[in-house]
Amino acid sequence: RPADGGDAAARGRLLALDLLHAVVSNAGPEFSADLRLQAAVRQHLCLALLKNGGSRAPAAARAAASVFTAALLRLRAGLKAETGVFYPMLLLAPLAPAPAVPPGVPPPPPPDALARATALRCLARVAADGQLLVDLFVNFDCDLGGPNLAERGMRAAARAAGFGGGGSQSA
């Protein structure tokens, strides 16, 4: 495989993510009313996020996090199940502390600094939307079997900012 073929594929992937980001970011009320259009975009959105969210190409993973954040901000009403999957994968995983490694086992590679910065930027956008925080809390944290996405997001941001964010503290 020629080297420029891989570069072309990577550029094509980033272009596709940029186009998806533009579609999601500019979705208006008409978009929300058309269930067929929503279903078509949701299908492509999920496929793009699955393929690129865990990509070894850092630029693709960062773009996927930005696309997902735009979808949360604009289209969250129809993405509850998807939010439960992609929020931890795209926004929380880059901020997770390094796992403890037994002696003699090589440590995993350090997290990509740009991926961490992108996740923090995305979490800041989430935190700036009060209704989105309430929706995350009500739909995930208040569900007894839910993944506590609002709490985990704020703890990850606090930990990244150096404020700890460890166990629960009582008042």
Describe this structure in words.
With 171 residues, the chain is an all-alpha fold. Helix content is 69%, strand content 0%. The protein is built from eight helices and no strands. It has helices spanning 3-25, 29-33, 35-53, 58-75, 80-92, 113-128, 130-141, 149-160. α3 runs antiparallel to α4 (58-75), α3 runs parallel beside α5 (80-92) and α5 (80-92) packs parallel to α8. The radius of gyration is 17 Å and the shape is globular. The termini are far apart. The relative contact order is 0.10.
Give the gist of this structure.
By secondary structure, the chain is mainly alpha-helical. The protein is 69% helix and 0% strand.
What is the element layout, followed by pairings?
Elements: H1 3-25, H2 29-33, H3 35-53, H4 58-75, H5 80-92, H6 113-128, H7 130-141, H8 149-160
Helix pairs in contact: 1-3, 1-4, 3-4, 3-5, 4-5, 4-6, 5-8, 6-8
Q: Rg, please?
A: 17 Å
Distance between the termini: 60 Å
SS content category: mainly alpha
Number-wise, the strands total: 0
List keywords for this structure.
single chain, 171 residues, globular
